[in-house]
Amino acid sequence: MPLLAGNLSMYLYRVADSLMVAQLGIEALAGIAIGVAYATAHEMLIWPVALGVQAVVSRRVGRRQARLTEEQQAEAPTPAIPPAAATDAIAEVLPQGLWAGLLAGTIACVIAALAPVLVPLITTAAAAPEAIDYVAISMWGLPVMGLASGLRGYVAGNGHTRAVMVAVVVSNLVNVALNWIFIFGNLGAPALGVRGAAVGTVLSHLTALLLYVGYHRLVVAPRGEYRRAVPGRPDRKLVTTILRIGLPSAIQNATAMVIILLFQGMMGTLGTIQVAVTHVLFSTFRINKALVGGFANGASILVGNALGADDPPSARAVIRTQLVLGAVVGGVLLVVVVAAAPAIASLFALEEEARRLAALGFRVLAPFYFLEITGYSLEIIFSHNGWGRYVLMSEVVTNVAGILGVTMLLVLVLQVDLPWAWAGFALYQVGHAAILFGGLRHGGWARVAVD
Q1: Percentages (nearest 5) of helix, strand, coil residues in the chain
Q2: What secondary structure does DSSP assign to 256-289, as a single string?
Q3: 222 CB contacts (<8 Å, ≥6 apart)?
Q4: What gap in Å lies between CA 153 and CA 2, rounded to an integer?
Q5: 153 CB-near residues (< 8 Å, 6+ apart)
Q6: pTM given for the model
Q7: Are 334 and 385 in contact, with CB atoms under 8 Å apart?
């Protein structure tokens, strides 16, 4: 539940960005649609650091728990503090996670700086300047996000999910408040428009980092359980392990965002309104992953604990329960979105034609999003436990065939109208879910070695 709250707040701040920028006009909304997608593609190179740290820590925590259980069953006295070797094996992950996060964040920042060259190639001329302005500021928050990701993975892997919730929720509330100030120039601040949204993003990353640091120093460290979790020189082997675990997901999500950028670019050939409407659909439907992803991330920690304790049956039981939760959440959202499509579209201050298209899009795509969300739990569990390469394979195949291939045929060759242009995205959702369920039956996720 804490992870769910954190995911939901992250979703809501993204929607708040779009709702506020929409007040500036359709071109500003199209610009932030491209700018956020471009920036997020680089963030996707960073957040898997948290995934890699969490995967290593959750396995080591599971092994420590198994050893303590064995001692109790043998009627040996249970130590007040867990065995030093097991404790230090967990603690040594923290500084290496910070090094991995700093490295990933710096690389992402350097790549993001190419926005003036790359953005005009993938969007309409009207949207490009706003998108470039957004990225020119938001890119400076990427190294900070890298450090925060290393801390987040360590805290979550140890089961301190409430701390993750507080850091994510508070930083996102800060983001929304700062956006209100800097986008519109409230409280005496300059009215920066789209650039104001970028300022809020950078400062929210800094807020999250400070909260994680404060929690570790004030709450975790005084307990004495993680006494060796102090800064140190990079351990190339452990840093490589963390990055290796997260790399497939980094590639997967960065590739997905690039393909979404290209998809929105193809929508741009139909008009600026079509880009804005597609962004509204993606922003709204993201709530599926925000809600289900919170439960799925919690499930992934428990699966890692079970696999670390060499207990695959318990891991399978966790997955079955998570699939039921995901189906229930997805089913409720399906009904709500279909029933309230016009009302949701009206929230974004769209003009009449854009509002009509958005309402149509909600109803057309809602069943396909339900199919995708049934498999999303497996995506999180697989990637957070070292089997990200399977998810990457599925994502690449379905993205290239569905989102790119089919959409190019429909939009650039057959020149269909907007509703039909979404068909390629719908095919991707069906195919990706089917491949993930095939992976569950295959069982490779239970046999993969983490560290």
Answers
A1: 85, 0, 15
A2: HHHHHHHHHHHHHTT-HHHHHHHHHHHHHHHHHH
A3: none
A4: 14
A5: 49, 50, 51, 52, 53, 54, 57, 97
A6: 0.75
A7: no
Contact 201, 42 (CB under 8 A): no
Extract the runs of DSSP E, i.e. beta strands, from 118-194: none
Distance of CA 59 to the CA centre of its chain: 22
Side chain identity at residue 91, one-letter code: A
Domain ranges for the chain: 2-446
Is the Cα torsion angle 112, 113, 114, 115 positive or negative in sign?
A: positive
Per-residue pLDDT of the chain (451 residues; tens, 9 = 90+): 777 777 666 666 666 766 777 677 767 766 767 777 777 777 878 888 998 999 999 999 898 888 777 666 565 554 444 555 556 788 889 899 999 999 999 999 998 898 888 877 766 665 677 788 888 998 999 999 999 999 999 999 988 888 888 998 899 889 889 989 998 899 999 988 888 888 988 999 999 999 998 887 777 666 655 544 455 688 899 999 999 998 888 888 778 777 877 777 777 677 777 777 877 787 777 777 878 888 898 999 999 999 999 999 999 999 999 999 999 988 998 899 889 888 888 877 567 788 888 888 888 888 988 888 888 999 999 998 989 999 999 989 998 888 888 888 888 788 787 778 788 888 989 999 999 999 999 999 999 888 7
CB 36 within 8 A of CB 14: yes
* Token duo for residue 371: 């199919």
Q: HSE, CB side, 13 Å, CA atoms: give it for residue 421.
A: 24
Alpha-helix residue ranges (DSSP H) falling in 216-271: 236-268
